[in-house]
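Example 3.2
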Amino acid sequence: MVQFSTLVIVSLLVAFYGGTFLISLRIGKKQENADGFMTAGNKLGFGVSAASMTATWIWASSMYASATSGYTYGISGPIHYGLWGALMILFIYPFGQRIRKVAPKAHTLAEVMYARHGRSSQLMLAGSNIVGSLISLMSNFLAGGLLIALLSPFNFIQGVFIVALGVLLYTLWSGFRASVLTDFVQLIGMLGAVAVLVPFIFFAAGFPAAFESGAGNLTAEQGNFFSSVAFFEQGAPYIAAVLAYAIGNQTIAQRLFAVREDLIKPTFITATVGYGATVIGVGMLGVLALYLGIEPMDGDVNNLIPQMAASYLPGILLAVFFVMIIGALSSTADSDLAALSSIVMTDVYGQAVAGKANANPRRMLLIGRVTMIVATAAAISLASLQLSILDLLVFVGALWGALVFPVIASFYWGKVTNKAFTVSVLVALAAFLPVRFSWVPMDGMFGILSDIVAVVGIGVVLGLMTFGFFGLKVAQIVGGLAIVLSAPFAIGFLHDYPTLSGSLVAYAVSTVVCFAMSVNQRETFDFELIKQRTGDFDDDELPAVGASGK
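Structure, written as tokens:
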């Protein structure tokens, strides 16, 4: 395996992070604006927005996780990971258009929930995003530390510190603007590198002969493109997980609020294609490693991609690969820092502490930058645990499933109340955890009950996907048919897949409870109030949240 010297690795890192820092210096403003720091004035164009959306969704962790899926489940693994992830980006845009219509100048989804419901709903969404972004930040630092440790004399902890400080260096200066503009440059390099490096590794490893000679290394399920194990352990849980990521993730919402409203659809369609092609392509390296019978270094599947690159790429292409992965993880890590700073600036200080009318924009900027520093330190500490990236992604996505229906319903249905939102999410989480971690015996009646609820969750997931494009009637038909058709096959065995069933239970419980608590409400919310209660922090003429919503 090729390894870089200290001088080479330092030169590559200085060139990459120095270049991104220079870009952030050129776009920085002497008199920084808090709203621009968070959403870039709500007027980003198509090219920058599409590139930023794609680069944010294509993170180093998604590349590593796709390869892990290919190594674990065979050729269908990267398809399940990349295809469903790509389709979820596509499913975001109709909901995104509705969100921007009712809140054209918001900064965070939690801010909108405060305007729509009140404090508890806001804190739930903000809290879940803080946890999710910290885990995402940690997993990207983890990926960077593993890469640097494998390809250089530096150890894992030193690699984590280098990546963390490099990302913080340029993001701290201009916040969200630095994130989206560096995303554009990073994505161009990333796509070019993938187009060259993945085919090169395949042919250097003996493709296509390796797929014939190495077929004996696969189990029957790994060799089956339509593997039920791959679908129930990877594909189906990821469908549910990424829908939750799409709706609840502040890094996505931030780009939704930043892009010009008329460009939402083409931006997300372009990101769908870019993400799917890139992540599936890189994930095939895991399939190749499986056919070649390669054992992950130190038994850690997170090492697969850098291990394959170091084994089959010559020095110059390995340097390109190194910069590609560093760019991928940095493009998402800076998005997480921007998201965390926006949440603390808007939802903690701007709403809970100072109040919308009294918030000081300059103090908000200081708070946002301090948040980035604290978040970086916390993520470095968490990265030292070296947890499985794939497990983290699926777990967080499943956990967010409890929020999906209450959040979407709050943008369309005026009867949803703060109490219904809060109670439905808490009850769903209480149901999710014991199923996901098998805290109670899943055989017997409890397993059957879990399966029945999970079947309702199947209808909810497919119904929500349909609703965004085709409206309520079609969604109800699709959801109902999904429940009826899946019940005979799913009840009795679905609890054998705790990741999938836990996620579906969260969807089902939150939907049923939220609907039951809202359907008989006589008062309906006036969505025009959200426009008045959210917006630039320079505007003091905002009605109080307690004003009538009738």
